[in-house]
Amino acid sequence: MRITSKNLDETVELNLKIERQVEEHIAYIDKRLIKWRSLPLEEQAYEILKEYNLIELPIPDENWGGAIRKFSSGLTVPVINTAQPRLYQYFIYWHEIYHLTEHEEMGSHLEDYEITIEFDLNERKADYFASQMIFGRHDLYDYYLSLRHDDFLVNAAHCMKSFKAPYKAVLIQLYQIAKKNRNESLQQQIRLYFDKHWSMEEWSAIFHEYALDDSLMKPSLIINLNPITVAIREQIEAHPDVELYQENLRVVEKWAGKYSAVQKELKEHWNG
Question: What is the DSSP secondary structure assignment for residue 164, as one 8-state letter?
């Protein structure tokens, strides 16, 4: 379900229905984060993803943030689009972690545990999990009310910077808390701005103007295919006579060449 100003209330109601399951999953993930507690939140997520053979590629598609891919070898890996702004990547980290670990958590329950196969609901759970990992330990609502800028967009930018969260994620979380606090004025303002779209360049300009960290609105453009190449090279070493592994390596090397060209083009764009 694509979230718009018209179904914001429906989204909030759905969040409340799945809240218990998402809180349980957060508690499950928290146990894995103990050894990384000293790291910033986005780096904690990155460490979990590395355990699942994270792949990073700059894919020139502003609507595609990441996915879980299963290769013919049976290897299941998260793929993150590094052509997205960094703070969008950070949100996708947690979204994909939910998908990667959902079945693991269910296996840890002795009793029957409900799992949904409904795509939209599962995606909402992943998004809500991501937002609660980012906002759950801090009060976005109080922070927003403490801001003194007259421009709603500038206030939103400060929230995005401070919580390292995407625009829509900030607005949905803020709307949910405003509704709980019966702040109709803020709800109305969020509905007014919710469907508007600004490019990475426009956001970057706003961040720069207000001395915010504008690197958050720029892509990292990282290429990381190491988990695949390492796994294939191990198979080649163990089975030097099997041509399939050599062919797989050539395919991955072609991917590396292709995305290196994309990376160069995007770097030239961002460097002017």
Answer: T
Which DSSP string corresponds to 18-32?
HHHHHHHHHHHHHHH
Half-sphere exposure of 104 (CA within 13 A, CB side): 12
Q: Copy the structure tokens of residue 222.
A: 């990282």
Q: Name the 3-class secondary structure at 241.
A: coil
Tokens matching residue 79: 């793929």
Strand bridging mode 66-70 / 55-57: unpaired
> What strands lie across the sheet with 76-81, from one edge to the other?
55-57, 76-81, 66-70
Largest Cα–Cα distance in the chain?
70
Task: Give the CA distances from residue 267 to residues 62, 106, 151, 263, in Å, rounded to whole numbers and listed in that order.
Answer: 16, 42, 31, 6
Quick count: other Cβ atoms within 10 Å of Cβ 117? 6
Per-residue pLDDT of 176-227, as tens digits, reads: 999 999 999 999 999 999 999 999 999 999 999 999 999 999 999 999 999 8
> How far, rounded to the nearest angstrom, does the alpha carbon of residue 172 sit from its chain's CA centroid?
15
Q: What is the distance of C-alpha 188 from the center of its chain?
A: 27
Specify which residues 22 forms β-bridges with.
none
* CA-to-CA separations, 270 to 57, 155, 213, 216, 267, in angstroms, rounded: 17, 25, 15, 13, 5
Lowest mean pLDDT among 127-136, 212-221, 234-243: 234-243
Q: Are strands 76-81 and 55-57 parallel, antiparallel or unpaired?
A: parallel
Provide the strand spans (E) within 47-122.
Answer: 55-57, 66-70, 76-81
Mind spelling out the 3-state secondary structure of 165-208? CCHHHHHHHHHHHHHHCCCHHHHHHHHHHHCCCCCHHHHHHHHH
